[in-house]
């Protein structure tokens, strides 16, 4: 590998620029999190404030897989291969399962929140008229 080749130098400069940009963005986000501009209180909670196991699982799976991928990249650099590790189908399947469990839980919650017998949220069907006894009482 020729370290003086113009494309290698360009790739190196672009790589360092990308790293500086991502680190800068990360520091801005961390500063805003500690400053209170970005509120993380409801990161893994539902609208009513209760915790969501599916959101927590999705968050943990995402962090575990991204940190594992970062370690694989660092290990490949130390070995001198400079190749991005191949993402196996198993990794993508785990992320898909985690994401789909979140979607299924949201569907179940949406189904549980709808009460078909509630007349306030479920108006009378078209053509519905009061019976004579109800009309006489009012």
Concise structural overview:
It is built from four helices and no strands.
Biggest sheet architecture: none
Let me know the number of strands. Answer: 0
Q: Which range does the strand content fall in? A: under 5%
The total number of structural domains is 2
Give the overall shape. Answer: elongated
The assigned structural class equals: mainly alpha
* Alpha-carbon Rg, integer: 27 Å
Q: Regions with pLDDT < 50 over 5+ consecutive residues?
A: none
Question: What features would you highlight for this structure?
Answer:
138 residues, 2 domains, 64% helix, 0% strand
Characterise this structure.
With 138 residues, this protein is mostly helical. The chain has two domains: 1-40; 42-113. It is 64% helix and 0% strand. The chain has four helices and no strands. Helix 2 (53-79) runs antiparallel to helix 3. The longest helix is centred in the N-terminal third of the chain and has 30 residues, at 6-35.
């Amino acid at each position: 590998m020729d370290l003086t080749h113009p494309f290698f130098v360009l790739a190196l400069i672009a790589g360092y620029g990308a790293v500086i940009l991502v680190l800068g963005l990360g520091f801005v986000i961390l500063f805003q999190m500690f400053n209170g501009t970005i509120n993380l209180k409801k990161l893994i909670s539902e609208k009513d404030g209760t915790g969501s196991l599916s959101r927590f699982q999705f968050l943990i799976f995402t962090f575990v897989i991204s940190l594992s991928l970062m370690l694989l990249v660092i290990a490949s650099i130390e070995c001198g291969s400079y190749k991005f590790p191949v993402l196996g189908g198993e990794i993508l399947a785990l992320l898909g399962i985690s994401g789909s469990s979140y979607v299924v839980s949201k569907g179940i919650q949406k189904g549980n929140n709808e009460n078909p017998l509630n007349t306030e949220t479920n108006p009378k069907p078209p053509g519905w008229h009061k019976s004579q006894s109800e009309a006489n009482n009012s």
